[in-house]
Amino acid sequence: MKKILLVSMLFVLLFASTIWAADMKTYFPNGKVQMEVSDQGMKTYYENGQLMSQIDYKNGEASGIGKSYYEDGKLMREDNYDKKEWKQYSPEGKLAAEGKM
């Protein structure tokens, strides 16, 4: 699970403020979409097709509320890019940590 979280956060760090000239998709070996990136935002998926994370872009930067999910679909993390705040949730859905960006 830590590896999945690390990969998810790595995508966020690498792509959150990148402006893409064209839409991009990457795929798992099974043919399911792994990542979708456009000038509107980015979505990453688990190999089973479940949404892993979603970030919206405005003027080439992450904006609004980005969300990451556990593989079972429960909310893992919320990043409020406008307020520069984040919240981390346990697999049971309880608030585990929060802070400022």
Q: Which short descriptors sum up this protein?
A:
14% helix, 8-stranded antiparallel sheet, mainly beta, 101 residues, 1 helix, flat
Widest beta sheet: strand line-up: 1-2-3-4-5-6-7-8
Helix/sheet category: mainly beta
The shape, in one word, is flat
Largest sheet: 8 strands, antiparallel
Unreliable segments of 5+ consecutive residues: 16-21
What's the helix count? 1
The helix content is 10-25%
Report strand %. over 45%
Alpha carbon gyration radius: 13 Å
Oligomeric organization of the protein chains: single chain
Along the chain, the helix and strand elements come as: HEEEEEEEE
Protein model, in words:
- There is one protein chain.
- With 101 residues, the chain is mostly beta strands.
- The protein has one domain (2-100).
- It has one helix and eight strands; from the N terminus they run αββββββββ.
- Strands 1-2-3-4-5-6-7-8 form an eight-stranded antiparallel beta sheet, with helices on one face.
- β3 (41-45) and β4 (51-58) form a beta hairpin.
- The radius of gyration is 13 Å and the shape is flat.
- The chain starts with a helix and ends with a strand.
- Residues 16-21 have low confidence and may be disordered.
